[in-house]
Amino acid sequence: xxxxxxxxxxxxxxxxxxxxxxxxxxxxxxxxxxxxxxxxxxxxxxxxxxxxxxxxxxxxxxxxxxxxxxxxxxxxxxxxxxxxxxxxxxxxxxxxxxxxxxxxxxxxxxxxxxxxxxxxxxxxxxxxxxxxxxxxxxxxxxxxxxxxxxxxxxxxxxxxxxxxxxxxxxxxxxxxxxxxxxxxxxxxxxxxxxxxxxxxxxxxxxxxxxxxxxxxxxxxxxxxxxxxxxxxxxxxxxxxxxxxxxxxxxxxxxxxxxxxxxxxxxxxxxxxxxxxxxxxxxxxxxxxxxxxxxxxxxxxxxxxxxxxxxxxxxxxxxxxxxxxxxxxxxxxxx
Length: 334
Description:
This protein is an alpha+beta fold and about 325 residues long.
C-alpha cells in the first residue's frame, strides 16, 4: 500500500493519503502470532497499536459479521477487498460471499477454489451431496447430461459449477482464472467477484499485464463458458495465457462476435452497457475492446457517437457514455 501511495503521489502537488485498514483472520493462533511479529519487524507496529490492522484468531465464517460491522462503521462508500485463500472449497461458502455483497457496498471478493478436487470426488452419496449443499450448490440440480468418463463430462461439470458459483454469490460480475501449476496435476481456480464493472475490468487488465501462471480456458471471443454452460458445437477449447498471441486471438474473435450484439440494439447501445453484457463471457479487457470498437467503426460496421452526438474518432478517447449505432453495412456484414 505504501508503494501504491507513492506511485499516486509522483505527479501530485497535493499529497494523497491512502487510508487503508487490514483484517487478517486465521484459525491457528501460532500463525497469527507469527504474522503480528512480522508486521512489527517490518516497521508497521503503529498499524497494530492504532487499530488499523487487526489480527484475529478464529474461523472467518465466525468473524465475518463483526468485520462487516466494523467496515460499515468506518463509513459507507469505501472500497473493500476480501481475499479468501481457503484450503479446500467449503471454508468460504456461497452464502458467506452473498452476505458480503448484501452488506458491504463497494466490495470485491477474490477466492481460491479447489475445483479439480471437488469434481474428482463427485458422486451421489449423501455425504458428498451434503458437502455440496453446504457450499451452496445443489448437485441434484445438475444439468450435466453426459456420462462420467467422457472428456466432455469434465468440461460440462466445470461449466455447471462455475455457473452456480456466480449465480449464488450475489455478485454481478464474475471471472474465473485457472491457476496453472507445474508441480500439481490438480487445478485451482482464482475467482473474482464484484458489483462494479471497473473493478472487474481492472482484474482482467492485471492478468494481461502480468502474464504469469494464470490461464483462461474457453474461446478468445465471447463464449458461453464458463457462465452460460458448455456448448460442444460452438467451443473449441484452448488455453489463453494472456500473452501477445492470446491478445491477437481475442481481438480477431471479437471482431466477429460483437456486431450481432450491437445489431440487436438498432437505436444504439452505450459502450458501458455493451461491456456489461459481455463482461462475464470474455477474457478481453477494455483496452482490447477499445481497439476492436475502433476497427469496427473504421470498417463502417457501426458508428461511435459521444454523449452529445459528436463523432468519436480515437480509440483512446472512447468512453463508457459513448453510444454505438449500427450502420446499414452491419446488416450486410451479418
